[in-house]
Design a protein that fits this description.
alpha/beta, Rossmann fold, seven-stranded mixed β-sheet, five-stranded parallel β-sheet, 12 helices, 14 strands, about 45% helix
Length: about 375
């Protein structure tokens, strides 16, 4: 081989190597990055989202990976704080050199990552939030698996009003997540010419709800829609029920963390309502649920749950995109492959994308905590 050809080969080899490193891809691995709460009042959400996804990735890796590449999920703890999510995202993108960000948990934490997502032009896949900021305006890098908070609150208000209840209040987390949920409730009630009778707030990662309880008891609502995480919602519900002065119907949206909320409430959870954006995680009629339980429950001590099922389904859809992108994988080829999933059955759960719509599902179900903390539809 002459010197010119040798230099050309070396140049091509370095270019390929640099591209692979930049995109978090090697011949043997694909690295994803996740920032989620693994400690603090929202820890169960992050842990279950991570573990559900990891259960499916482990299965794929054990059967040869995708195109011979193992999927590596690097998860960093942000404690459900936006500032920590920013630092984590910088580490994942600039130091760990990930191919994609995956399964961020929370609205504020997801929003905090978006500037780096735009700068690096990398996929931001399946955030555990239904916020409009991850849907509007359209962002080609973001892929949502779950329905939006607007869709959840619309379904909740529709149900409440069919019961002829019109004194509706909102308890919400005083941040982007809570305000998005509040906006969804306002929109749904405005359609029906109903005004909210009262609002009360709680700070993120706080259970100081005494002021909110006093405000709500004074308003005497028939139903309260709650937009917060499980610890603060549980503290609020217990406080509202403490002296028996009022007995509203309590409604939560899916982000609350259904099993975690039920556990926090104990016997006081009976009758609490929660909207869901995933199939029931104990319903073996759905093939994806059966597959999830077979893989997720291999680890002793686990129980089926909505959050871990969402992580599992998100991982399954992500792998489908990788397979469709083929061996010549890049961020661009992955995005195009995802946009080509015009209709796909994950196993009883339908997802659909296009070149101008990255919101896979509009599925919303309504559940209630029944006897012994079990969920009923």
């Amino acid at each position: 081989m002459n010197l010119q050809k040798l230099l050309l080969c070396l140049s091509l080899g370095l270019a390929i190597s640099a591209t692979a490193a930049e995109n978090g891809i090697t011949s043997k691995s694909i690295t994803l990055g996740q920032s989620a709460a693994l400690t603090g009042p929202a820890a169960q959400l992050g842990i279950e989202m991570r573990d559900g996804a990891q259960a499916y990735f482990d299965h794929v890796n054990a059967t040869g990976g995708v195109g011979g590449r193992q999927i590596i999920l690097k998860t960093l703890d942000d404690g459900y704080e936006a500032e920590k999510a920013v630092a984590n995202t910088k580490q994942l993108v600039e130091k760990d050199d990930v191919f994609s960000l995956f399964g961020y948990v929370g609205t504020a934490t997801s929003n905090a990552a978006l500037p780096l997502v735009a700068k690096e032009n990398l996929p931001f896949f399946a955030p555990f939030t239904g916020a409009q900021s991850l849907r509007e305006p359209f962002n080609r890098n973001i892929f949502n698996i779950r329905a939006s908070y607007f869709e959840e609150t619309e379904k909740i208000i529709q149900h409440i009003t069919t019961l002829s209840l019109n004194r509706i209040a909102v308890f919400y987390q005083d941040d982007a997540y809570g305000k998005t949920g509040l906006e969804g409730v306002i929109r749904a009630m405005k359609k029906r010419n109903i005004d909210i009778v009262a609002t009360a707030t709680v700070e993120r990662n706080s259970v100081d709800v005494s002021k909110a309880i006093a405000q709500m008891k004074q308003a005497k609502p028939q139903a309260i829609v709650m937009i917060s995480a499980y610890t603060s919602c549980a503290a609020f519900i217990k406080g509202m029920l403490k002296d028996g002065e009022v007995s509203p119907i309590f409604w939560n949206i899916s982000f609350v963390g259904s099993q975690a909320l039920s556990k926090e409430l104990g016997a006081e959870g009976r009758g609490v309502m929660i909207s869901q954006v995933m199939p029931a995680p104990w319903d073996d009629i759905n093939p994806v649920v059966k597959e999830y339980k077979n893989l997720y429950l291999k680890t002793p001590g686990r129980v089926p749950g909505y959050v871990s099922l969402e992580g599992f389904i998100a991982a399954k859809v992500f792998v489908e995109g990788l397979k469709r992108a083929g061996n010549n994988l890049s961020r661009e080829s992955f995005v195009k492959a995802m946009e080509g999933i015009s209709s796909h059955d994950v196993g009883g759960f339908q997802v659909k994308f296009s070149g101008n719509n990255h919101n896979a599902s509009h599925f919303v179900d309504l559940t209630v905590i029944g006897k012994d903390g079990k969920f009923m539809r």
